[in-house]
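Researcher: Next sequence.
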Amino acid sequence: MLLFTVDAFTDTAFKGNPAAVCLLDTPVTERWMQSVANEMSLSETAFLLGDSLRWFTPTVEVTLCGHATLATAHVLYSTGAATGQLEFSTASGILTVNRRTDGMITMDFPAKQVTPAPVPDGLEKALGATPVGVGKSALDLLVEVDSAETVRTLAPDIEALAAVDARGVIVTAPGEDTDFVSRFFAPNVGVNEDPVTGSAHCALSPYWSARFGRTSLTGAQLSARGGTVYVRHDGDRVHLAGHAVTVMSGTLHL
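Model: Next structure:
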């Protein structure tokens, strides 16, 4: 079985969000996939068998992952295994992926609407920042703060954030060089901070589109590695676009 490491949402190696991609040639067990994901020790490992795509963190399987989907499509396009539109069958339904003429890959994902929510007890202390607003999507808690600089300099108490009843915590603010910025913390699924989170932008896109009155926006995730996600909100769908770079490829001998 072929195994790749791909940096997603970047056109530069060692930036963006690294994902492992395993191209399966035979069905395997969930326990085996989880063991491989733990061995890879990246925020996500994608497993593709035919058109069936699944994603695992080092500790759990997840129902939606943007950067590992981007990485998988990049592997198929860059190796010549695919040329046109891709359709992946996933726990979040059929996800459609296309490669544009500029080399960017665009993914059609379900939008995750954000509804206002009360501030969870201890959240402000855990973040070390005062929320401007708090909302919740089907997956995550979204916390808006006052500025991009606040997002950039956050040093949250990760153990305290694990008490939040959500997959992860998105912290966001209006951008400086981009429309908005964010960071994403998900200790509940074994990822203290994810470098660039495509699925979080399924909530960020409709949230900021409603604020700015525009459907097409650019988001920067201000992790140490950093990355850029281009988004377009279209009703109950969000189109996410970005680049990817292969940094390693090999064979899994198991």
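Model: The chain has a mean pLDDT of 97. Helices lie at 30-40, 66-78, 123-127, 148-153, 158-161, 201-212.
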